[in-house]
Amino acid sequence: MFQPRIDRVRRLMAEQQVDMLLLSVGADLPYFCGYEAMPLERLTMLVVPRDGDARLIVPRLEAPRVIERPGVFDMAVWDETDDPIALARSFIGSASVIAVGDHMWAGFLVDLARLLPGAEFRRASEVTSPLRSVKDAAEVESLRAAAAAADRVAVDLRSGDIELAGRTEADVSAELGRRLLAEGHQRVNFAIVAAGENAASPHHEPGERVIKSGEVVLCDFGGTMADADGVGYCSDITRCVHLGEPPADLVEAYDVLFEAQAAQVTAAVVGQPCQEVDRVGRAMIAEAGFGDNFIHRTGHGIGAEAHEDPYIVEGNTVELRAGHAFSIEPGIYLAGRWGLRLEDIVVAASDGPDNLTTTDHRLAVIDA
Fold first, then answer.
1. What span, in angstroms and rounded, lies between the C-alpha atoms of 65 and 212?
2. What residues form DSSP beta bridges with 241?
3. Helix (H) or strand (E) run with residue 214 in it
């Protein structure tokens, strides 16, 4: 699958008059060549000219980790006393418009710019994102497998199989991570566990706060699961659990959230502008009096990265295409009291929205 991807990105390079694509750390690299570089001070870089052979520059001590793919790229291995920037410069040649990976270390770019004073540098995402954001059938199935694994952990959470009361947020977070790995993920990307007032912080860092009876626990977790070619695809799910009978105002807010999220999923059809999906649920939440408490976008694209295009947010007029995969995760947050969020991963498909996460969406109430 890698050569067709490189062929497609070269066509976009030609359309945008980009001479050279340079990919270092980040998800673009494994997407196009199957190798995920360690974030080291040693340079790893896939050099893709618009015309000519692609080369993977890699330090010798990392070379054993690379699966060689003749016809996709040639290996260019460098030793500890070599200058990898000079090696990259030799492959770049006379290229004048160069697209560099969005996650490339700034130090590498500064050194390259010094050797290429007349070059115009652009973001690689201008040519890679249009390809990566539209998933093919195999990628959708990889996302589905990752989502199903996260779903199984979420079922355990909602059923009470994962004990909450009397444990710290950090302890529960670690257990969620262990269960993701046991379900087939290679890496845990995050496992937010936020109890009571901490749930009002959407990106709360789990700590030594002990979870108590009578409060809501918001759990947002996901990881990366590798496909057969070693490219990782991400999961992401959020469900809320209340320990004991929830108060009436929280139930009211959750009911609003439940309906708004369902409406947004339904609205996520091919041809719908991303901002319209955001507007559907946001209007419902605002009408219920919680407009100021929905403080983030509705969602983000997902694939080889946990966050990528397309973003489901006001101002994004990009129309959903078949194969776009993204989260739908509205939230309601009351500072100092509690927070609620409900998240699914959805794929826009020709026959309607394909919701990959199926765990019960209702507020789980567990005796405690």
1. 46
2. 217, 364
3. none
Nearest to 324 by CA among 280, 362, 282, 268: 268
Residue type, 263: A
CA contacts within 13 A on the Cβ side of 234: 24
| pTM score | 0.94
Beta-sheet strands, E only, within 42-151: 45-49, 55-59, 74-78, 97-100, 120-123
Strand-pair category, 216-226 with 325-328:
unpaired
Q: How many residues does the chain have?
A: 368
E strands along 50-183, which residues? Answer: 55-59, 74-78, 97-100, 120-123
pLDDT, mean of each 10-residue run, the chain (368 residues): 94 96 94 91 96 95 93 95 96 95 94 95 96 96 98 98 97 98 97 98 97 97 93 97 97 98 98 98 98 98 97 98 98 98 98 97 93
Rounded to whole angstroms, the Cα distance separating 351 from 335 reads 40
Determine the Cα–Cα distance for residues 81 and 103; give it in Å rounded to an integer. 25
Torsion of CA 141, 311, 363, 339, to 10 degrees: 140
Q: Is 321 left (phi over 0), alpha (psi -120 to 50) or beta?
A: beta
Take residue 296 and report the two structure tokens written for it. Answer: 């983030």
Residues 238, 290: contact at Cβ < 8 Å?
Answer: no
What is the DSSP secondary structure assignment for residue 212, as one 8-state letter?
A: -
Residues forming a β-bridge with 344: 328
> 177: which residues sit within 8 A by CB, 6+ positions away?
188, 191, 221, 223
